Amino acid sequence: VEGWQGAAADGCATPASPHDGSAAATYVYDEAASTLTITGTGAHLGLAKVANGAELGSSSAAPESVTYDVLMFDGDYMTVTMDVGTGWWTFDLVKDQPSPLAGTWRLTGESAAGVGPASGSKEWWQTNAGNNSGVDARPCLFDDAYVFSADGSFANDMGTETWVEGWQGAAADGCATPASPHDASAAATFVYDEAASTLTITGTGAHLGLAKVANGAELGSSSAAPESVTYDVLMLDDDYMTVTMDVGTGWWTFDLVKL
Strand pairing partners for 235? Predict the structure, then answer.
């Protein structure tokens, strides 16, 4: 924020109207003319003072629209420029890419979930038809969806039934109405740390795979559900993801596919 906007000195400060994101703005990219027009008083790229034909001297002088010449645009990078009358301002921009997790995921199918003595291992137990825990036996688990949104929000989409166990108050393990807090009621978020290969889901009850799997322990009651869970990401490409978690007595692993 600069002096012409009312600041005592140029520096980082609360955005000043109308360059404060309050405009209900729109844009038009004219590929043939290589121009980008943003309409909405105060909406802009780069510096707020840059306007067609002049650098602004007061906030009240902000125009209804600004038009930039697009020098380069390849889908990931863009360079725009504008004549302010006394020279040309140029801005280089890079697109914020959506998270590679963005989308809806499900367990891949038979043997998608399991537990073993090491990260990624399922040698102790895994879901499959042989032990009556596969897709046919647990359809309400394998149709659960895990929704990662581009805005960083996360949701469990379980429909009317999911896999519910005794520790959640069920008379017997089986398909039943989701039990709180593992019932998709959390306003959850996620953070994928690519460098650390971790995925943290925050929101009590939000989870991947089985509700009981938590860091350092398998849950013994719904009231013990943590505020967040962090998975190690063993593999992630455009369509498949494998995550694992240490529950203290072993490692749970889940294989997921993006729909």
Answer: 242
Q: Residue 248 to residues 65, 177, 182, 202: CA-CA distances in angstroms?
A: 59, 29, 21, 20
Tens digits of pLDDT across the chain (259 residues):
999 999 999 999 999 999 999 999 999 999 999 999 999 999 999 999 999 999 999 999 999 999 999 999 998 999 999 999 999 999 999 998 889 999 999 999 999 999 999 999 999 999 999 999 999 999 999 999 999 999 999 999 999 999 999 999 999 999 999 999 999 999 999 999 999 999 999 999 999 999 999 999 999 999 999 999 999 999 999 899 999 999 999 999 999 999 9
Q: How far apart are CA 218 and CA 123, in angstroms?
A: 18
Q: Are strands 213-214 and 217-218 parallel, antiparallel or unpaired?
A: antiparallel
Residues 6+ apart with CB under 8 A from 166: 172, 173
117 to 112, 246, 254: CA distances (angstroms): 17, 9, 14
Distance (Å, whole) CA 188 – CA 250: 26
Taken in order 66, 71, 72, 77, is the CA torsion positive or negative? negative
- Residue 242 backbone dihedrals phi, psi, to 5 degrees: -120, 125
Going through 2-120 in order, the beta strands assigned E by DSSP cover 26-30, 35-39, 50-51, 54-55, 65-73, 77-83, 88-94, 103-107, 113-116
Element (H, E) at 162: strand 162-164
User: Which residue is it, tokens 């600069």?
Assistant: 2
State CA 24 to chain mean position distance: 24
Three-state DSSP state, 61: helix
